[in-house]
## 1
Amino acid sequence: MKTNTIDPRILLSTLWIVILFNMIVRDLHEFLREGYIEQMMSLQIPEVNMLVYGFVAQIPIMMILLSRILKDKANTWYNTIAAVITSLGFLSTLPNADMDDIFFVIIENILLLVIIRVSWKLSKQPSKRNTELSQ
């Protein structure tokens, strides 16, 4: 994938959108499994766990915006930390995962590695805004 011609901020934001869609499709995909809805309704999930799941789900949503507005150095660190936390959230589902869940986790983690790579390249490049301001 040639990323040199794409604005890194737009690329990062788009990658977070792709991850978010993968999360949604992964959840929707589970509804097709026989007995899934009944199984979910019978679970007694503690409120603390629901809060943690909500926090992990909120990260890609926030990173769509933050990837576009943060300065380069902050963008690098926020994207790296967000990718690591999100990856840990995905990996925590593996003990109970079936084959399709494993597939989605692999794809999502590959995308998170790309996000880390792009964000670290961003901090090493001179910013277009800095170049334009100095002219």
## 2
Amino acid sequence: MKTAVAGRTILQSVAAFTTVGGFLMDWNKTHLFNPRWTPHAKFHDAMTILSGTFLGASSLYLLNKKDGDPANNLKIGAFLPAVFYLAQAGSFTFPGAKGLDAEFPEKIPMVGEIKLNEGPFSLVMLAALGAGYLLAKGEAK
């Protein structure tokens, strides 16, 4: 039972961060208020912020829902934030797309030679979602 609670806590934490993370990370001069960004680039950033907000909030709703199919609520609740982080990680494969370190390298923490930009961060969040789901799924049967 303790592992299921830990799993749900992990999932809810990732969902909560996904809900507010765009505002915390992008509502500043490096992104939405960057004077070098075109209005269309800012539109896409706003769309990304809201996508994370809606996916995270929907996940929180399902993870805390008391009725319906608990296993299905858990599955979809874990999947919704994963969509956001899969899209974020996959964005690095598009031509010319780079992380925050391309423009603001001083803002990126490093562990050894690894820059902890959006790519590694997405992988950490996906791993947390996977671990949280595996820990919590025994309870949702």
## 3
Amino acid sequence: MSPLSPAKRWSGTLAGAAAGLGVLAVLSALSLPMAVAVVVGGPAGDLLESMIKRGAQVKDAGHWLPGSGGLLDRIDSLLVALAVLLVLS
């Protein structure tokens, strides 16, 4: 998908977007700004965090969740998705 994170694939990005939109639909929270935040902000946050880690030459962003990339890997998509939603709202 990107040289920033060679292991990421479009199939995972599309599956994540579909799952996020499905959850929003189930929660009756699906709107255009929310959809854009999930579909664009989520992958952008993940790639941004990968870029930062590559620039710092580290594999994990922290030791709280060893082997999983750290805590930042768990919330990177959420942070940028929330920022996108704030801009669109």
## 4
Amino acid sequence: MDYILNRRLGEAEVGRYDLEGDQGYLMFANVQELMTRPIEEQMPESHRIYTDIQFLVSGEERLSFYKLHPNAKVIDDKFDSHDIAFYESDPSQQETEILLKPGMFAVCFPSDIHRPNGSITESKSNKKIVIKIHKDLLHL
């Protein structure tokens, strides 16, 4: 969090910023500007290598998550190329929702399936920083 605040990443242009390791493989930041959408339209996703810290700079966002479970059905596996997989929605899973306002953050571990960038009331533009932290730094 110090890095985000002290380096003024909230003022940075959209893009990727290497933070730690050769070519930032251990930790990097993605600065994003996106339009929120209804949470039901967001595909559930997870990662294997990186933990996300999703820090909201402006706007508002609904983020939901639940534990990754063995019966989760992958519908788009991009683990090898982008460390992400998308899942079929699972109505049997109780999702926990977090409402993010500017200055707030959420942490999504590889053991979580999450749906970021959901609208709270209506579609709005938001800016956020997603810090990607390699599992080797966290010793999970």
